[in-house]
C-alpha cells in the first residue's frame, strides 16, 4: 500500500489500522478505498474491498513518503552514502523548497510589516540587539547599525477577539525547542474555548527560556488580552517563569502542571501507593478530603508528605483553587496538543514556521466555525456530553455524577460529590 501511494502520488491514510483490520482511504470525496480483514485463528489477511478509482488529483504532501534518504540511494544506485551527506542533501532540498534560513531572517522586517498592513490590529513586535559599543537593545532597526535578531512576538487580532469574547480566563504557557541550525525556542500561550478544546492565543520566538524572555512575553500578552481581568495561568516549572509571575502578575492565580510535579516526586519517592495518594490529593475538591488524603500520605512516607507541603498548595490541588478560571484542569495538556500540530514546522526557517502556524490557525478556526453552526443546542457538544453523564445514576450505589465503572465503592459511592438532601449512606454489615 505504501509503494502504491508513493509511486502514484496518492496521499493515502489509514483510518483503521489494528491487529484485525486495516482500512485505507484518500481525500474526502474520493472513491478510493481498500479494506483488509484478518482470518480468525490465522496469521493472514484477506483483501475484502478494493476500489482503485480516484476522483481527485495527486497529493503534494504524501503522508506515506518517508525521509530515509540512505535507503533510497542504496536501493536505486546500489551505493552507500554517509548520514552527514544525506543530511546535507536534505538541507539543500529544503532550501530550494522553503528558502534558506539566512534569507528568511533578512526578510523578517518585510514580513512583519506585511502582517501589520493586512490587519493593523495584529500585534507584531520584533526585538533586535547590537554588540556595537554605545548601542543598547532597541526595537527600532533604524537606531542601530548592525541589528541582530533576538525575539519575535505575534498575536493575531482574531485570536485576541475570540479569547476576549468566548474563552475562559485560563491560559496555559509552555515552550519548545526549534530544530533549525540557529536554535531558539518557541513560546506559546494557549487558552481554553467553551467546548473544552485548546485555543491558540499568542506565540513568540525567543533565544532561550530565561527570566528576561518570559517577562517580555508575559507583559506583551497582558497588554493584548489582560485588560485588568483576573486571569489564571498554568505552566510547567520552567526556568525563570515562576520568578516572572512573581514580578509581572503577583496577584494573579498561577497553577503548576501536576504531571511534572509528580515526575519530580517520583524520582525522590517512588511507589504505586504514593502515586495514588498524590493524584487523590490533587483531585480532591473539598479541604476535608484533601487533609484526610495528606494524613494518609504522611503515614506512608513522611518525606513525600514534607516534599509536597513545601510546594504552594494553591498551585496543584483543586481544594485550594479559586473559582475565577471556571476550570479545574490539573494538566497543561493544551499546549501539548498545539505542539503536536507544529512538529514539522519547527524544522523550517522562521518565516515558513510563522506561516505554517498562521495557516493552521485559519483552518482550525474555520473548521470550528462550520462545526458549531450545525449544533442546535445552546451548549457545546463536549459540555452537553458532560451534563448528560452527570444526570445518569450509578447502578452500583444509586448516586449521580459517575457510572458503575468509576464508582468508589458501595458505601457512599464517589466521595468527591456532595450528597443530595435527604440521602442516607447505606452501611454494610460485616460478619467476623
What order do the helices and strands come in, and which of them pair?
Elements: H1 2-8, E1 13-17, E2 21-25, E3 33-38, E4 45-51, H2 69-77, H3 83-98, H4 101-106, H5 108-118, E5 123-129, E6 148-155, H6 157-166, E7 170-177, E8 185-192, E9 198-206, H7 211-225, E10 232-235, H8 241-248, E11 253-256, H9 258-268, H10 272-283, H11 287-300, H12 302-309, H13 333-340, H14 350-373, H15 381-391
Parallel strand pairs: 7-10, 10-11
Antiparallel strand pairs: 1-2, 2-3, 3-4, 5-6, 6-9, 7-8, 8-9
Helix pairs in contact: 7-8, 10-11, 11-12
What descriptive keywords fit this protein?
single chain, 432 residues, alpha+beta, 7-stranded mixed beta sheet, 4-stranded antiparallel beta sheet, 15 helices, disordered C terminus
Describe the structure.
With 432 residues, this protein is of the alpha+beta class. The protein has 15 helices and 11 strands. It has helices at residues 2-8, 69-77, 83-98, 101-106, 108-118, 157-166, 211-225, 241-248, 258-268, 272-283, 287-300, 302-309, 333-340, 350-373, 381-391; strands at 13-17, 21-25, 33-38, 45-51, 123-129, 148-155, 170-177, 185-192, 198-206, 232-235, 253-256. It has a 7-stranded mixed β-sheet, with helices on both faces. Strand 7 and strand 8 (185-192) form a beta hairpin. Helix 10 runs antiparallel to helix 11. The protein is globular and about 70 Å long. It starts with a helix and ends in a 41-residue tail after the last helix.
Amino acid at each position: 500500500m505504501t509503494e502504491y501511494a508513493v509511486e502514484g502520488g496518492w496521499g493515502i491514510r489509514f483510518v483503521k489500522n489494528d491487529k484485525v483490520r486495516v482500512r485505507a482511504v484518500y481525500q474526502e470525496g474520493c472513491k478510493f478505498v481498500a479494506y483488509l480483514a484478518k482470518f480468525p485463528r490465522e496469521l493472514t489477511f484477506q483483501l475484502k474491498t478494493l476500489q482503485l478509482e480516484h476522483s481527485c488529483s495527486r497529493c503534494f504532501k504524501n503522508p506515506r513518503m518517508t525521509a530515509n534518504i540512505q535507503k533510497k540511494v542504496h536501493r536505486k544506485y546500489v551505493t552507500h552514502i554517509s548520514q552527514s551527506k544525506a543530511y546535507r542533501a536534505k538541507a539543500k532540498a529544503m532550501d530550494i523548497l522553503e528558502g534558506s534560513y539566512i534569507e528568511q531572517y533578512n526578510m523578517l522586517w518585510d514580513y512583519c510589516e506585511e502582517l501589520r498592513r493586512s490587519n493593523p490590529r495584529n500585534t507584531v513586535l520584533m526585538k533586535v540587539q547590537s554588540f556595537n559599543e554605545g548601542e543598547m537593545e532597541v526595537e527600532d532597526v533604524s537606531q542601530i547599525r548592525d541589528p541582530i535578531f533576538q525575539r519575535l512576538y505575534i498575536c493575531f487580532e482574531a485570536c485576541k477577539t475570540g479569547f476576549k469574547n468566548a474563552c475562559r480566563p485560563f491560559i496555559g504557557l509552555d515552550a519548545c525547542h526549534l530544530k533549525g541550525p540557529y536554535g531558539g525556542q518557541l513560546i506559546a500561550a494557549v487558552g481554553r474555548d467553551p467546548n473544552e478544546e485548546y485555543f491558540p492565543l499568542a506565540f513568540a520566538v525567543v533565544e532561550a527560556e530565561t527570566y528576561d524572555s518570559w517577562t517580555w512575553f508575559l507583559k506583551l500578552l497582558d497588554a493584548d488580552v489582560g485588560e485588568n481581568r483576573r486571569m489564571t495561568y498554568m505552566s510547567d516549572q520552567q526556568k525563570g517563569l515562576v520568578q516572572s509571575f512573581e514580578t509581572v502578575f503577583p496577584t494573579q492565580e498561577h497553577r503548576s502542571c501536576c504531571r511534572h510535579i509528580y515526575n519530580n516526586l517520583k524520582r525522590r519517592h517512588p511507589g504505586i501507593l504514593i502515586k495514588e495518594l498524590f493524584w487523590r490529593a490533587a483531585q480532591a475538591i473539598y479541604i476535608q478530603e484533601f487533609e484526610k488524603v495528606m494524613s494518609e500520605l504522611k503515614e506512608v512516607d513522611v518525606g513525600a508528605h514534607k516534599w509536597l507541603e513545601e510546594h504552594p498548595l494553591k498551585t496543584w490541588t483543586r481544594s485550594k483553587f479559586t473559582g475565577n478560571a471556571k476550570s479545574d484542569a490539573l494538566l497543561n495538556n493544551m499546549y501539548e496538543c498545539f505542539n503536536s500540530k507544529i512538529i514539522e514546522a519547527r524544522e523550517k526557517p522562521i518565516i515558513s514556521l510563522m506561516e505554517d502556524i498562521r495557516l493552521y490557525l485559519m483552518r482550525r478556526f474555520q473548521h470550528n466555525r462550520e462545526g458549531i453552526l450545525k449544533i442546535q443546542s445552546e451548549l457545546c457538544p463536549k459540555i452537553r456530553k458532560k451534563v448528560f453523564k452527570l444526570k445518569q445514576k450509578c447502578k452500583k450505589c444509586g448516586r449521580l455524577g459517575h457510572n458503575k465503572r468509576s464508582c468508589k465503592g458501595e458505601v457512599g459511592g464517589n466521595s468527591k460529590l456532595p450528597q443530595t438532601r435527604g440521602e442516607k449512606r447505606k452501611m454494610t454489615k460485616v460478619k467476623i
